[in-house]
Amino acid sequence: MLGYTISQIAEITGLTAHTLRYYDKQGLLPFVDRDKAGNRAFKESDLQWLAIITCLKKSGMPVKKIREYMDWCMEGDVTLHQRLDAFEAHKRFVADKIAELESYMHKIDYKIWYYKTAIELGTESVISQSNCVWTFEE
């Protein structure tokens, strides 16, 4: 087999063919070969690259930064430090995002408790009305 088609890769990865074409146009898929007709011919090893790209994209890395990372990968060992730095910076970004989401989860848990308590009591009038809203400092 010459390689997987874009449709097959879309089915395997859960990415849409449109997304894969977009990634290719943005320079994120320099490793993908083309067949004689000029169609993308993905290899099994390309799935690993796509997994990393998907991880970085879904965890909030901008396409421009992913392209920079992919360029470094294509350059080889001379960019190992840059790639490490990029992952360390992205890890800090993701950790900060997780902390932010945990803060929101705490507020959501509180509101669930609030409404369950109000339902049990049959009213929220015995619970402080200030519990209905938060300030940005909370």
UniProtKB/TrEMBL annotation:
GO MF annotations, alphabetized: DNA binding; DNA-binding transcription factor activity
Keyword flag DNA-binding: yes
Domain HTH merR-type: 3-72
Presence of the UniProt keyword Protein biosynthesis in the record: no
UniProt-listed InterPro entries: DNA-bd_dom_put_sf, MerR-type_HTH_dom, MerR_fam
Keywords: DNA-binding
Pfam families in the cross-refs: MerR_1
SMART domains: HTH_MERR (SM00422)
Name of the protein described by the UniProt record: MerR family transcriptional regulator
